[in-house]
Design goal:
The complex is a heterodimer.
Chain A: E1 2-10, E2 20-28, H1 34-44, E3 64-67, E4 70-73, H2 79-86, E5 96-99, E6 106-108, E7 111-112, H3 115-124, H4 144-148, H5 151-154, H6 161-165, H7 167-171, H8 178-188, H9 196-205, H10 218-222, H11 229-242, H12 251-265, H13 270-278, H14 290-298, H15 300-309, H16 315-318, H17 330-344, H18 350-353, H19 364-382
Parallel strand pairs in A: 1-5
Antiparallel strand pairs in A: 1-2, 3-4, 3-5, 6-7
Helix pairs in contact in A: 3-8, 8-11, 9-11, 12-13, 12-17, 13-14
Chain B: E1 6-11, H1 21-34, E2 36-40, H2 51-55, H3 57-73, E3 78-80, H4 83-98, H5 100-111, E4 126-128, H6 129-137, H7 139-145, E5 154-157, H8 181-188, E6 192-193, H9 212-228, E7 233-236, H10 239-247, H11 249-256, E8 263-266, H12 267-274, H13 292-299
Parallel strand pairs in B: 1-2, 1-3, 3-4, 5-6, 5-7, 7-8
Helix pairs in contact in B: 1-12, 3-4, 3-5, 4-5, 6-8, 9-11
Classes of the chains: A alpha+beta, B alpha/beta.
Chain lengths: 383, 303
């Protein structure tokens, strides 16, 4: 049994006061959870401390919260580990900091209002199957293999931890966000769904859709079930490209330009990337969108400032396409890689395939037992 | 912690030789002063920055397997100077290391070029300069090299997402303090750490061409928070963060509707200052946000 200090961000709207911090001492085994600690506070010190919880086993998804700034489930965060994490920087004496989830209005103490920032966004992506044609007489029959791809996004328990952690949503509350987009992939990847292209078009057209994610990986670390919502967003982008879905946010053109430049140059020609992201195929048919023209114009003051300090004062930075190729046949090697990979397009998902076991070291006792068995077998054959 | 000579296969990245060329330049200067020998991988290719993987994951994995194979040919550990390279390459390496048949498939095309990526060959590692500095070079050894302690300089760390998350992929099991290394380095150089909200948040750069306002709001908010916390400058191991925090800073100021004007240093520049190098040698005059205030703060301490 050890003693821990929980520093809880509280809010009691009926008091008429703003949020405040309160510290509580709890006594628990280190392997018990932060949620267990909060329930002990409720039991021993203050019954008004409010927290949502039910299963206490990381299945129901009720107890989303931030512990030391990290979004996750209170029941899946061991209090001993939380104590260590709180004290890594200063070596000791720091309390475990417990806060309600981020990016959501707080109703009371650790209870947040998930309606506007979670459930509404989930409904936004049409989270049900949209098959075409007459329904079959009995259930839909699909190959089990064809469903494996979406098992990762199906593992979501709707706890909201990813939404709480999302750094894009922090800057743009309209961003559809990690939970809803992971849910969107669950249907985009479903072989029974017939509106894949419409779904992708909808999510790509939205300025707060699939191209509003900044790759910050916060949702991957927050998710208690390994859904890796950011990975699902990247798969949505991949699917959008496969389905020839264009977007007004330069998302697809940026990705296509980046990929093309590396094939031609091996390293990044930044000025060409800027030009091609905003105005793909400028030398052929120029068809930049309104947003692209605005973006391109918006980058001019930045370029002028760069010229003044000398940052941009070199030909490859000023003139798209001047950037050199890789030396000594390197570029041909990169081209060969493109040919090979574009032909196969294998998508290796560790969540599904798992990590291969490390080659087993020869285990001495086992080897000895095998040798004994072999010897015994030889003897019995001989007898 | 080793006291011996450190020699690494060095992947500088793209942006560090492009829009933030002062990063590559200052790294070369600092490596020489620290006694780190850099064997530059000049035939290696872009890491894909997570963008190529959006298009074709196998393509990103193969491109990075090629870089790792080139590094393995030197028999040396690999070092990078870009958080984004670190993250994108670690992601590909995790998939390559997970499965021998996938690795064999990727190596098919590399073998035609006399290359092969082998898991764990010669204890192969790929580390950002920040990680190498703390884990292999050693903070005590670094502190011994300091000739101009950054006394009184208040520095806000800015990591870049790609060296902070996801923890499981980035070796935090083995090195749980990797998200505290910037603080440790700042202190080893004699500087003062400024705590502020944005140190481990996203700079917004990846969506600068897709959602400019969201992107610049992120950069502007973090720079503003650091100023409010009393920072003289930020330091970052990521040149892409530098683009949004420094190059775009005047634009970010417009979005968050406040004056900014905070110097943002690349990690080797901060180290270089403490090793006695002049700001101009370190390319600090190329920055958009003026570094003059930092230079004035340090001028009182004799080099």
């Amino acid at each position: 049994m050890a003693s821990y200090t929980l520093k809880v961000r509280r809010y009691q709207p009926e008091s008429g006061k703003g949020p405040f911090w309160e510290e509580f001492q709890v006594d628990l085994e280190p392997s018990l959870s932060v949620l267990d600690g909060l329930l002990q506070v409720k039991d021993r010190d203050d019954g008004s401390l409010s927290v949502r919880c039910s299963c206490r086993a990381a299945i129901c998804g009720s107890c989303g919260m931030k512990v030391n700034g990290q979004s996750g489930l209170g029941c899946k965060t061991q209090i001993g580990e939380a104590h260590e994490a709180a004290n890594r920087r200063n070596g000791g004496g720091e309390p475990i900091v417990v806060e309600p989830m981020g990016n959501m209005p707080v109703i009371k103490d650790l209870i947040t209002d998930m309606e506007s920032t979670h459930w509404e966004k989930i409904r936004r992506v049409t989270p049900w199957l949209l098959p075409h044609g007459e329904p079959p007489e009995r259930e839909y029959v699909v190959e089990p293999e064809s469903m494996i791809d979406i098992t990762q996004s199906m593992a979501c328990i709707q706890c909201g931890a990813c939404v709480s952690s999302c750094l894009s949503m922090e800057a743009d509350p309209d961003f559809i966000g990690p939970a809803a987009l992971a849910k969107a992939y669950r249907f985009v990847g479903d072989p029974r769904d017939a509106e894949t292209k419409e779904r992708l078009h909808d999510l790509a057209q939205d300025p707060h859709g699939i191209y509003d994610c900044t790759h910050c990986f916060s949702c991957i670390d927050a998710c208690p079930k390994g859904v890796a919502p950011m990975d699902q967003i990247m798969r949505l982008r991949r699917k959008a490209e496969e389905n020839d879905v264009e977007d007004p946010n330069n998302g697809h053109s940026h990705m296509a330009a980046f990929t093309r430049i590396i094939e031609k140059k091996g390293t990044l020609d930044e000025s060409l990337l800027l030009q091609e992201s905003y105005a793909p195929g400028v030398k052929g048919k120029l068809k930049p969108t309104k947003g692209a023209i605005k973006g391109l114009l918006g980058s001019i003051p930045t370029a002028i400032r760069g010229l003044k300090t000398g940052k941009m004062r070199s030909l490859p930075k000023l003139i798209p396409g001047v950037h050199p190729k890789l030396p000594d046949g390197g570029q041909d090697e990169v081209k060969a890689i493109y040919e090979h990979a574009e032909e196969h397009r294998e998508e290796f998902n560790i969540y599904i395939r798992g990590e291969e076991d490390v080659e087993p070291e020869p285990d001495e006792p086992t080897a000895a037992i095998l040798a004994d068995e072999a010897k015994a077998a030889a003897e019995s054959e001989g007898s | 912690m080793s006291n011996g000579q450190i020699k690494v296969a060095y992947w500088p990245g793209c942006v560090s030789r492009g829009f933030t060329a002062e990063l590559h330049g200052s790294m070369a200067l600092v490596a020489e002063r620290l006694g780190i020998e850099l064997v530059e991988l000049d035939r290696a290719n872009c890491c894909g920055a997570g963008v190529i993987a959006e298009h074709n994951q196998e393509l990103a994995d193969t491109l990075n397997a090629r870089t790792f194979a080139l590094a393995q040919q030197t028999g040396l550990a690999m070092m990078n100077i870009c958080s984004t390279c670190q993250g994108a390459q670690s992601e590909c390496q995790q998939r390559l290391d997970a499965d021998s048949s996938y690795r064999a498939h990727i190596n098919e095309v590399l073998s035609g070029q006399g290359l092969s990526y082998e898991k764990g060959k010669d204890g192969f590692t790929n580390k950002n300069f920040l990680w190498l500095l703390v884990e292999d070079y050693g903070l005590e050894r670094l502190a011994e090299k300091v000739v101009r302690p950054l006394s009184g300089l208040r520095v806000g760390p800015f990591y870049g997402c790609y060296v902070v998350r996801p923890k499981e992929r980035l070796g935090y099991d083995e090195f749980p303090e990797r998200d505290l290394y910037l603080e440790k380095v700042i202190e080893a150089l004699g500087g003062e750490v400024v705590e502020y909200d944005g140190a481990r948040k996203c700079c917004g750069f990846p969506v600068i061409t897709m959602n400019r306002e969201t992107s610049l709001r992120q950069a502007g908010t973090h720079v503003g928070d650091a100023i409010d916390a009393g920072a003289d400058c930020l330091v970052t191991p990521c040149p892409l963060c530098h683009l949004n925090l420094d190059m775009q800073q005047p634009e970010a100021a417009k979005v968050v509707n406040r004056d900014l004007g905070l110097a943002v240093l690349h990690l080797p520049q901060l180290v270089g200052l403490a090793l006695g190098a002049e700001p101009k040698q370190l390319g600090m005059s190329k920055h958009i946000a003026s570094t003059k205030w930092v230079e004035e703060r340090l001028a009182s301490v004799a080099a």
